[in-house]
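Suppose you are handed a protein chain with no further information: no name, no annotation, nothing but its sequence. What can you learn? This example shows the usual starting point.
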Amino acid sequence: MDANQIMRAMRGFSIEATPASATKIENFTSHLAPGTTVNVTFLADSDPADTIALCTRLRREGLEPVPHVAARGFRDEAALDRYLGALTDQAGVREVLVIAGGLSRPVGAYDNSMQVLASGLLQRHGITRVGIAGHPEGSPDIPGPALAQAIEFKNDWARETGIETYIETQFCFDPDAVLAWERTIRAAGNRLPIHIGVPGPASLKTLLKFAQMSGVGPSMRVLTRNTRNLAKLLSVQAPDRLIAGLARGIEEDPNCLIQVMHFYPFGGLAKTAGWANAVSAGRIVPKRDNGFDLVGEGADSRVSMAAS
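A reasonable first move is to predict its three-dimensional structure. Written in structure tokens, the prediction is:
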């Protein structure tokens, strides 16, 4: 394990927050460095006003809010226009993550993220940076060929509009599967940089629940070894082997497009931020399983999820 490789891979990490989880955080800058990117969810059946309010708060506290724009949650172009207008006017938003959203059926005019991109509304509201979804392990709702076509469309859109665009993925557990997917879409023509979804430290039971909800498939075997042991189910699992494996793969392939680690804080934002900050600062010691432990402050997440 090369600590410098890992620190480079962790540089500029981002993190997810929900309006509900934010109520437990007195001040985000107690946990995150100024300027850290924080993605703000817009979940199915939630109130867009909550997402707007959290983005406004994050901006006020010196962080960079990146709200989700969930296509299937908007009834019409006017509703999307109002949402984007409020985000840019009230929270100074200039970057968004455009996704289809978790609804099985759209509530209105938009069925997928490509329709939002093609609407021209992002440009109209001065959005200068856009994230789009990536699925290293596929999607339970979208066939593989359609995913490939979407990546091609989004590359074309980025090239034609000149808007800085990147892929942000679902969370994953297996670094080899992620690196293989990156090589595959690159060979097919992808040129967009990639932000990899990383599950923050959480109990194995919690990780399994979110993995099943999100349709994360093949790499779940990383989690399910020996899960009959109750102590194992309740133990905290850290993504050290995932981070170490990705860092090694990035260094070994100079053409690799993976640039950022994006954390999903299933075990809580404070715990995840503390772990990520410690790793970024190099407060790590190697383990025999190709992972690492934390040392010093924040060293409370010692079980590697890939070693479970």
